[in-house]
Amino acid sequence: MNHLATSLQPARATTARRAALGLAATALALTALPVTAVAARAAAPDPLARYHHQHLTWKSCLLGPHDATGKELEQAGARCADVTVPLNYADPGGRTITVALSRIRATDTAHRVGPLLLNGGGPGGQTIGDPPWVRKAMKNVGRRYDVVGMDPRFVGRSTPLDCHWPTGSVFRGAGRDRAGFDRVAAFSEDLARRCRTHAGDVLPYATTRNTARDMDVVRAALGERRISYLGYSYGSYLGEVYTTMFPGRTDRVVLDGVIDPDRYGPRLLRGVGPANRHALDGWASWTAARDTTYGLGRTRAAVLASVNRVQAAAARTPLRLGEYRVDEHVAPIVLFNGLSQDNDSAYGDFARGMRDMLRAANGQRVTPSPWLADVLKFELTGSESPYGSVQTSILCGDAFAPHDPEVYWRDVRRARAQDPLFGPVTNNLNACAFWDRPRERPTTVRRDLPALLVNATGDPRTIYEGATTVHREWRSSRLVTLRGADQHAVFGVYGSRCADATVNAYLATGRLPATDITCAARAR
After folding, report:
1. 270 in Cβ contact with 399 (< 8 Å)
2. Helix (H, G, I), strand (E, B) or coil at 93
């Protein structure tokens, strides 16, 4: 769950029905084949054989004395390996890249289920460091699994992709007028140009479909007929795509923070405004009760008025926060970044950040608090350029985005009238408006997966409507609802005994709950 893992967070009955009919037609066609044709197909050479049967060399995960992730993996007993995959699956004999894995092996070998492959979201987020905390969340069930973290292609310890951006994020607010919108358009076009310049040779292969193909190579290289899967946020979409492209190769599937595949794409932030407004209101109420600590106002309305003062001040003149300058395009993104976790620690970090910004709006010299400094470093420097580069390359490579800026300008104006704060963010253009068309069409996701879906009702990234839509289409699925929490990612993250126990029971038995489960949020 990384940054806009969301958005990573970023209308489907028709496409799902086509997928089901297509699978049925394929099955009927196969049964009609003559025996000789079936035998010939069975004997056909596997073009990916050298990848499927490669030998994996497991080694220490520690890259050096300052490798915090490697130390955590070592302490948890994990080992790491690199898997070779083709850059272009249409040319398996051509250029290759590597995908990095970490693995904590099952200790209860007598009751071993198999590998549980993880994806923590993004797209562009690292997952190689996740097995220790996921293994802990699984409690005793974890002893029966090989818990496997995979940095997807071009991410983290895998073969890299970096467009050399001056930012870690493609997302910006549109500003208050057409001049501001045009500035963002120019900024976005420059980001796209940098990607063509520095990574043009690999951009066409940075897609979810290729990551799913990599997952299946990993499955085969591990020597497994099937894998179980736990995907958060964007990882839910990756799981949907993998199970569609490779039916019959998954065992137990958990999707936490569920994306409706028909809403996924370069504009996946559209529709999340109301959930973010609800989360902002909840945070404002919490902050108002602690006015002596944060000084943002004694009532929810007063806190929200402080937020609006910050946004208005940034629109007039960029706010000075240490070495950073926060303008009308970045200020609402800071706000957006503060809304994903529903707990006192995250609320406090966000409140301190807004207090810093309010002081800057009042003309004071401000050194940003640690949370705010991290957000501004991410947004306003190139320190996380690889993250933003990969995230955007995948979003743009997965689905087509309109190339006419006027489409976005109309949407921004319409959305601003309803929500002046989040509308110009969630409906704005980004670099995908200046990207080449995708090489492949989006996956038409299947509708018959027996998966366990998990979502909070107030999730500001992968909104609850996405989970209910997928559940309605997947009649064989079950939905675990965390009611009353503005929380992105639940299992092992939020601390719901009810939700965690339900997921672990499914992972232990392979049996979905008899009915959907609703869990209550923590009392404040």
Report:
1. no
2. coil
Helices and strands, counts by H and E, the chain: 19, 11
What is the token pair recorded at 410?
A: 């109309």
Q: Are 452 and 256 in contact (CB under 8 A)?
A: no
Asked whether the beta carbons of 76 and 84 are under 8 A apart, the reply is no
Entry pTM = 0.92
Cβ pair 122, 151 in contact under 8 A: no
Percent with pLDDT over 70 in the chain: 92
Amino acid at 488: H
CB–CB of 207/397 below 8 Å? yes
Strand stretches in 211-332, DSSP E: 227-232, 250-256, 319-321, 324-326
Structure tokens at 242: 């993998």
Check if the beta carbon of residue 124 is closer than 8 Å to that of residue 91: no
Separation CA 265–CA 345 (nearest Å): 31
Q: What CA–CA distance (Å, rounded) separates 119 from 254?
A: 11
List, for residues 416-429, the tens digit of each pLDDT value. Answer: 999 999 999 999 99
Q: What are phi and psi of 100, to 5 degrees?
A: -90, 135
- Tokens, residue 370: 């640690």
| Joined tokens for residue 127 | 């997952």
Token couple for 461: 């990234």
Q: Which residue has the tokens 């979003």?
A: 395
| H runs (alpha helix) in 338-463 | 344-361, 370-380, 385-398, 405-418, 423-426
Burial of 314 (0-12, 13-18, 19+ CB in 10 A): buried
Angle between helices 178-199 and 385-398 (to 10 degrees): 90
Stretch (H or E) spanning 519? strand 517-520
Strand partners, 99: 83
* Among the listed residues 352, 349, 313, 346, the one whose alpha carbon sits nearest the alpha carbon of residue 332: 313
Beta bridge partners of 518: 481
Q: What is the DSSP letter of 143?
A: G
**Residue pLDDT, tens place only, 294-306:** 999 999 999 999 9
Other CB atoms within a 10 A radius of the CB of residue 35 amount to 7
